[in-house]
C-alpha cells in the first residue's frame, strides 16, 4: 500500500536533553565530529541505520532510551557542553572579523544546488558540493554570507541499476518537516510568501531556512496550496524538465531569491546584501530584480545597470556548451512582457542575453552571456579554466586578445572537515596536536611515522571494502526480495589490493569507460598474480542522457563478468555519504576527462586531502598542482587525428602508468610491509596540497579578490544618490556613440638606426581621431612584443602614449597627436602597433566595454 500523504512527527525530548534539539537544528553537525559522536552515543546501530541524520535519529529512538539518557548526568553535561561550543562558534570573531571596515556586511550567494549533507539531497554533482563547501568554509571564516537556492521536493534522483546494467531513476519525495529546516515567518507567525507575476498568474513560494553554521540558507519552495497544480511543481526536481520549466525555476531562483533575501533581512535585522554572487549562470536573473528596484528609486535602466554590475560576481563553471542554459528568445520575451519586473522592458532583458557576436545564434537567450554583462567581476574555477573561458567568451570583447578578456580565475577548494576521514583527523590530533589537517605538519616523520600513515591508509581502505560489500548486498536484496545474497558478494574486493577509485557524474566528456578501451589488457591488470589492482566506480547519468546510461551499462556489464567481478565494482547511487568513504579508501584517484573540458574537478582534491595519489589528465586543478611527486599525469593526446585515436593513446598511456609505475611502487614493501616510496608520496601530498586545496583558501580569495573590490565599486557608484553611476552611464553612452569615428590615422616611428640593436630607443608618434571624445576618455597605447610567424605578437607589453599637442581652441574632432617610446631590450624579432581604448577608473580593464580602435 502507498500512502497518499505523509508527514513527520517531531520527537518531544525530555527537558534535560533540550540541547540536542538546538544542536540538530544547525547543519554544523555535518562537519563537526564531536557533535556526531554525541548523537552516535544515543544508539550506534540506529545512528548508522539513519545514515547519520540527527533528526531522523531523534525521531526514531525509543523514548525509554531518551529517558535513560535524560537521567544520565554525564550525558546531559556532554550535550550542554556541545551546545555551548556551538553557540560560541556562532558568535565569536573569526578571520573575517579581522578585516577592515570596508569588507561587505553581507554577501548573497546564489546557486541552483547545494550539497551540504546526505540528509539534504539538493545537489546533482560538483557544482552543488562546491556550493555546500563554500558555505561551510564561509561559516568557519566568519564571512557574512546568506545563501539562496530552491527546495526541490525530490532533490535530484535516486539511482538503481538493473541486472543488465541500465540506470533506473526514482524520485522519493522529501518531507521538509523531517529536515533541519524552518519556515521563514512574519512577526505574526504567518509564512512569508514570495510572489512573481507570471503571464499565467501569480507564482507563490514559501521560504525554508537552514542554518549552515553561521550562514543562513534560504530555499524557495512552490509546493504550497496557494499555487495551482502546474505552478506547485515548479520546484519538483533539480534539472528535471526542459525549457519552460527550467526557465521558471531560474526566474524564481534569481528574482524570487533577491526578494527572499530582502524579506529575510527585514525580518531578522540583518544588513542588506552589498555583493551578489551567482554560482554559475542559472541565478543570473537576480541582477534584473535589483535593476528594477533601482529604477524604482529613479534611475534609468543604464544607470541601474552600472550599480548592479559593480556589485555582482559571476562564476562560470563549465566550458561544455550543454552546461550553459540557453532559452528560446520568444519564451524569455513572453515572461518579461508582464508585470514581472516593474520598469524593465523586455527588449532590455533580451539584449543582455543576446549572442550578438560571430558564431552566436540570434534565436537564443544565453544565461552565461547575461552573467558576464550583469557581473563586472567574473571568474572561472581553475587557472586553465580561466584561460579557456577567456577564449570561449572572447566574442563579447571583439578586437582584444584573450588574455585581456576580463574573466579571472579562483581555483576551487574543498571543505577539509567534511572530506577528511575521522581516522586521519584523529592521527593529526594524536601525533601533531591539531585537528586542522590542512595546517598540520605532515612532514614531521618523528611524530608521524611511515607505519602510522600506512596503517591509517589501510584502515580506510578496509572501511571502503566493507561499505562496498554492504552496498552491493543491499542493492542485490532490493532486486531479489527475500533471496539470499550470493557468496561472492561477501568476498567482493580485497582490503589489501591496490584500489583505484573513479566516481563522478557521467557526461560524455568525463569518459567513464576509457578504462575499458582494451578489455584484455585491463583484465590482466586486475588479475595480475603479484600486483593485482581493483576499481571502485560510481556515478549518475542525467535522466535524459541515454548515452551516459549506455556508458554505465557497458561498465556494469564488464564488471559483472565472473572472472573479474571481485576486482571491479560499480556502486549505485553515488552521493555525499558514499563519497566520504570512497575518497579515503582509494589509493589512487583516477580522472580522465577530455582536456580542457573539466573546469576544475574537485573529487581528486578530496582524495588528496586523505592522502590518496591522483592519476589524472592534466586538466582543471591537476594541471595547476601536479608536481611529479603527488601522483601521475596522463598525457593528453591533443594532436591526435580524431576522438577515437585520442582515446586510444590516452588509455594506453594510463595502462602503462598503472602497470609499470603505480602497481610496482605500491607493492614494493619493506620489512614492516610498508611501501616506503609510496608513503613518501602520501606524506608529500598531505604536506603540500592540504592547505591550497582547502575551501578556506578558496573563500579567502573570493573575499579579498572579488567580494571586497565589488563592494567598494558599488559603494562608489551609489554614493550621493548614485551620482557616479549616472555619470558612468552617460560616459559609456557618449563613448559608444563616438566610437565608430575613433581611429588611428597615422603612425610615425623614429630613433632607430638602419640596423636596430638592443639598447636603441624606438620613438612612436600617432595621429588619432577622437571624434569628439576628450583625450582623457581614452588611452592610446603602443603595443609591442615578439612578432613570430605572420604578424601575431606574442608576449605583448603595453606602453601608454602621451598627448603631445592638443590644438588650442580647435574642433575636438580634429586629429590629436600622442607619442612615446620603448627601449629595445631583446634581440630578434620585434613588432609593434598602436591602439586606442576607452579608459575610466570605474572600469576593471581595457577590454570591459569591448571597444578598441587599432592602427
Ligand atoms: C565531489 C563530488 C562530485 C564532483 O566531483 P568532480 O570530480 O568535480 O566531478 C560529485 N558528486 C559527489 C557526491 C561529490 O562528493
UniProtKB/TrEMBL annotation:
GO terms for molecular function: glycogen phosphorylase activity; pyridoxal phosphate binding. Its cofactor is pyridoxal 5'-phosphate. The modification N6-(pyridoxal phosphate)lysine is found at residue 606. Keywords: Allosteric enzyme, Carbohydrate metabolism, Glycosyltransferase, Pyridoxal phosphate, Transferase. InterPro entries: Agluc_phsphrylas, Glyco_trans_35, Glycogen/Maltodextrin_Phosph, Glycogen_phosphorylase_DUF3417, Pyridoxal_P_attach_site. It is an enzyme of class 2 (transferase). It comes from the Bacteria. Residues 13-120 form the DUF3417 domain. It catalyses: [(1->4)-alpha-D-glucosyl](n) + phosphate = [(1->4)-alpha-D-glucosyl](n-1) + alpha-D-glucose 1-phosphate. Its EC number is 2.4.1.1. The keyword Lipid biosynthesis does not apply. Phosphorylase is an important allosteric enzyme in carbohydrate metabolism. Enzymes from different sources differ in their regulatory mechanisms and in their natural substrates. However, all known phosphorylases share catalytic and structural properties. This is glycogen phosphorylase.
Amino acid at each position: 500500500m502507498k500512502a497518499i500523504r505523509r508527514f513527520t512527527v517531531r520527537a518531544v525530548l525530555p527537558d534535560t536533553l533540550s540541547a540536542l534539539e538546538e544542536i540538530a537544528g544547525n547543519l554544523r553537525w555535518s562537519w563537526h565530529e564531536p557533535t556526531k559522536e554525541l548523537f552516535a552515543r544515543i544508539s550506534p546501530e540506529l545512528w548508522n541505520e539513519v545514515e547519520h541524520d540527527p533528526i531522523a535519529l531523534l525521531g526514531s529512538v525509543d523514548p525509554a532510551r531518551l529517558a535513560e539518557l535524560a537521567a544520565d548526568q554525564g550525558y546531559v553535561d556532554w550535550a550542554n557542553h556541545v551546545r555551548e561550543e556551538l553557540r560560541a562558534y556562532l558568535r565569536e570573531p573569526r578571520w573575517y572579523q579581522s578585516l577592515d571596515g570596508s569588507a561587505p556586511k553581507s554577501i548573497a550567494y546564489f546557486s541552483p544546488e547545494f550539497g551540504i549533507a546526505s540528509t539534504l539531497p539538493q545537489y546533482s554533482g560538483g557544482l552543488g558540493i562546491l556550493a555546500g563547501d563554500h558555505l561551510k568554509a564561509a561559516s568557519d571564516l566568519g564571512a557574512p554570507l546568506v545563501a539562496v537556492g530552491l527546495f526541490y521536493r525530490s532533490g535530484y534522483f535516486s539511482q538503481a541499476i538493473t541486472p543488465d546494467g541500465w540506470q533506473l531513476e526514482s524520485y522519493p519525495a522529501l518531507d521538509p518537516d523531517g529536515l533541519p529546516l524552518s519556515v521563514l515567518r512574519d512577526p505574526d507567525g504567518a509564512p512569508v510568501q514570495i510572489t512573481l507575476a507570471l503571464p499565467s498568474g501569480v507564482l507563490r513560494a514559501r521560504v525554508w531556512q537552514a542554518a549552515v553554521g553561521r550562514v543562513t540558507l534560504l530555499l524557495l519552495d512552490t509546493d504550497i496550496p496557494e499555487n495551482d497544480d502546474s505552478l506547485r511543481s515548479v520546484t519538483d526536481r533539480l534539472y528535471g524538465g526542459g525549457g519552460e520549466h527550467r526557465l521558471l525555476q531560474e526566474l524564481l531562483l534569481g528574482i524570487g531569491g533577491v526578494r527572499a533575501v530582502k524579506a529575510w533581512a527585514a525580518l531578522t535585522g540583518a544588513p542588506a546584501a552589498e555583493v551578489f554572487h551567482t554560482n554559475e549562470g542559472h541565478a543570473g536573473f537576480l541582477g534584473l530584480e535589483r535593476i528594477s528596484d533601482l529604477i524604482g528609486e529613479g534611475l534609468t535602466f543604464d544607470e541601474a545597470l552600472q550599480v548592479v554590475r559593480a556589485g555582482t560576481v559571476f562564476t562560470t563553471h563549465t566550458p561544455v556548451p550543454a552546461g550553459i542554459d540557453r532559452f528560446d528568445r520568444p519564451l524569455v520575451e513572453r515572461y518579461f512582457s508582464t508585470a514581472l519586473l516593474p520598469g524593465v522592458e523586455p527588449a532590455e532583458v533580451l539584449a543582455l542575453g543576446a549572442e550578438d557576436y560571430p558564431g552566436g545564434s540570434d534565436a537564443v537567450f544565453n544565461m552565461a552571456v547575461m552573467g558576464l554583462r550583469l557581473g563586472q567581476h567574473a571568474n572561472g574555477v581553475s587557472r586553465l579554466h580561466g584561460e579557456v573561458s577567456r577564449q570561449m567568451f572572447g566574442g563579447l570583447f571583439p578586437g582584444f586578445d584573450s588574455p585581456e578578456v576580463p574573466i579571472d580565475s579562483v581555483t576551487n577548494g574543498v571543505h577539509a572537515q567534511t572530506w577528511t576521514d575521522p581516522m586521519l583527523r584523529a592521527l593529526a590530533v594524536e601525533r601533531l596536536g591539531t585537528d586542522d589537517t590542512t595546517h598540520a605538519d605532515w612532514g614531521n616523520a618523528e611524530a608521524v611515522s611511515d607505519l602510522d600513515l600506512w596503517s591509517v591508509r589501510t584502515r580506510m581502505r578496509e572501511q571502503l571494502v566493507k561499505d562496498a560489500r554492504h552496498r552491493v548486498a543491499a542493492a542485490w536484496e532490493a532486486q531479489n526480495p527475500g533471496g539470499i545474497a550470493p557468496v561472492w558478494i561477501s568476498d567482493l574486493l580485497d582490503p589489501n589490493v591496490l584500489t583505484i577509485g573513479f566516481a563522478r557524474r557521467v557526461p560524455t566528456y568525463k569518459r567513464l569507460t576509457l578504462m575499458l578501451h582494451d578489455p584484455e589488457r585491463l583484465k590482466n591488470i586486475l588479475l595480475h598474480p603479484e600486483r593485482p589492482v581493483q576499481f571502485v566506480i560510481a556515478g549518475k547519468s542525467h535522466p535524459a542522457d541515454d548515452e551516459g546510461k549506455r556508458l554505465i551499462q557497458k561498465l556494469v556489464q564488464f564488471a559483472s563478468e565472473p572472472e573479474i567481478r571481485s576486482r571491479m565494482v560499480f556502486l549505485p547511487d553515488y552521493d555525499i555519504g558514499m563519497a566520504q568513504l570512497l575518497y579515503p579508501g582509494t589509493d589512487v584517484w583516477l580522472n580522465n576527462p577530455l582536456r580542457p573540458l573539466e573546469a576544475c574537478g574537485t573529487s581528486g582534491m578530496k582524495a588528496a586531502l586523505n592522502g590518496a595519489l591522483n592519476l589524472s589528465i592534466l586538466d582543471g586543478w591537476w594541471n595547476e598542482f601536479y608536481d611529479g611527486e603527488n601522483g601521475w599525469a596522463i598525457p593528453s593526446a591533443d594532436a591526435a587525428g580524431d576522438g577515437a585515436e585520442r582515446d586510444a593513446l590516452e588509455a594506453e598511456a594510463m595502462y602503462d602508468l598503472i602497470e609499470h609505475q603505480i602497481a610496482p611502487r605500491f607493492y614494493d614493501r619493506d620489512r614492516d610491509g610498508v611501501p616506503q616510496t609510496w608513503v613518501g608520496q602520501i606524506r608529500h601530498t598531505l604536506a603540500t596540497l592540504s592547505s591550497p586545496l582547502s575551501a578556506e583558501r578558496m573563500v579567502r580569495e573570493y573575499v579579498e579578490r572579488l567580494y571586497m573590490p565589488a563592494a567598494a565599486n558599488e559603494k562608489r557608484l551609489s554614493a550621493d544618490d548614485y551620482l557616479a553611476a549616472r555619470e558612468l552611464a552617460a560616459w559609456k553612452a557618449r563613448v559608444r556613440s563616438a566610437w565608430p569615428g575613433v581611429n588611428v590615422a597615422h603612425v610615425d616611428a623614429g630613433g632607430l638606426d638602419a640596423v636596430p640593436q638592443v639598447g636603441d630607443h624606438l620613438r612612436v608618434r600617432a595621429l588619432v581621431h577622437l571624434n569628439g571624445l576628450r583625450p582623457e576618455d581614452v588611452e592610446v597605447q603602443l603595443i609591442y612584443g615578439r612578432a613570430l610567424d605572420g604578424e601575431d605578437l606574442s608576449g605583448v607589453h603595453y606602453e601608454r602614449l602621451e598627448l603631445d599637442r592638443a590644438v588650442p581652441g580647435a574642433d575636438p574632432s580634429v586629429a590629436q597627436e600622442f607619442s612615446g617610446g620603448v627601449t629595445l631590450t631583446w634581440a630578434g624579432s620585434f613588432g609593434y602597433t598602436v591602439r586606442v581604448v576607452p579608459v575610466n577608473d570605474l572600469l576593471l580593464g581595457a577590454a570591459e566595454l569591448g571597444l578598441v580602435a587599432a592602427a
